[in-house]
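Support case: pyridoxal-5'-phosphate complex. Customer-provided input:
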Amino acid sequence: MAKKYNFGAGPSILPPQVINATAEACKDFQGIGLSLMEISHRSKDFQAVMDQAQALFKEILNIPEGYSVLFLGGGASLQFCMVPYNLLEKKAAYLNTGVWAKKALKEAKLFGEVVEVASSAEQNYTYIPKDYTVPADADYFHITTNNTIYGTEIRKDLDSPVPLVADMSSDIFSRPIDVSKYALIYGGAQKNLSMAGVTFVIVRDDILGKVTRPIPTMLDYRTHIDKGSMFNTPPVVPIYCALQTLLWIKEKGGVGEMEKLAQKRAAILYEEIDRNKLFKGTAAAEDRSLMNICFVMNDEYKELESEFLQFAGAKGMVGIKGHRSVGGFRASCYNAMPVEGVEALVACMKEFEAQH
Ligand SMILES: *Cc1c(COP(=O)(O)O)cnc(C)c1O
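Agent response - structure generated as follows:
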């Protein structure tokens, strides 16, 4: 059987050593004769996991003083609600760059006035709008740094006149970020950090406590900050898995190294997409994501789409079918994707081209 490469968009590829260490801990946690799944989250054994995960998160992303790191439930989707619940008093600004951005925007409307500063919906989200003005009186400005479905990405830290909030579900830890430019960063862990079940939040403590509405206890960031992300039982296995990924990132040289690898993988694959007569990319060249690489068959080869999916699938390329709103193919190249995986996909594309 061909070696399999997992190009799935999420839940997605994890380094083998992360999977092994997590599986091992589920059987016998650090040799104590109990499973990670059955020990108390209040035990000193698990407290050490939580402490180390938060400390490494801060170390690897170089998070300044004054920020807290939380591991919560509910996915990035619950953050679409928690962000405005905690931060939106009157007005918020949103950049509409895709389905996830739109979902976040829709939720914010439940809490106050929402200004959509710009949108690329009219061109099926194939680019990132750049000419827009963020109202100076907005409580915050929300962006989605990587548009997982459409394969576009904001790969620099924007300057914002108001507190900047970012959904980084699918590109966190793929490059160094200047956290001081953000008031809050969140994301589901299942794209580039861990298995499904945990959501990370990096929040600058001083932006909280400014809204006048009462906030339910579990939805108030301050509850979780006060209790060190242990107000209630946290998702212990996904947090342990995240810790293993953080250890792996550090061992590999940190986010600078992750970025180099991401650039290398993306360069190899986009070059082939642009060269190969059968395929074409869907995202505007300057906004192409390094994480989710979207491409379709060129018009004259449209009918070969399902044949290529089958062909590549038989050669071990898993999860490359594009999202239904873009069609074609999407190769998600998160941190754990080895360069050989992308080279194997490129070899498939070349071989398929030779047959047609
Ligand atoms: C996957 C994804 C989400 C949704 O995450 P859940 O954890 O499933 O709620 C939100 N935003 C982006 C950018 C995503 O890629």
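The chain is about 35% helix and 15% strand.

Case will auto-close in a few days if no follow-up is received.
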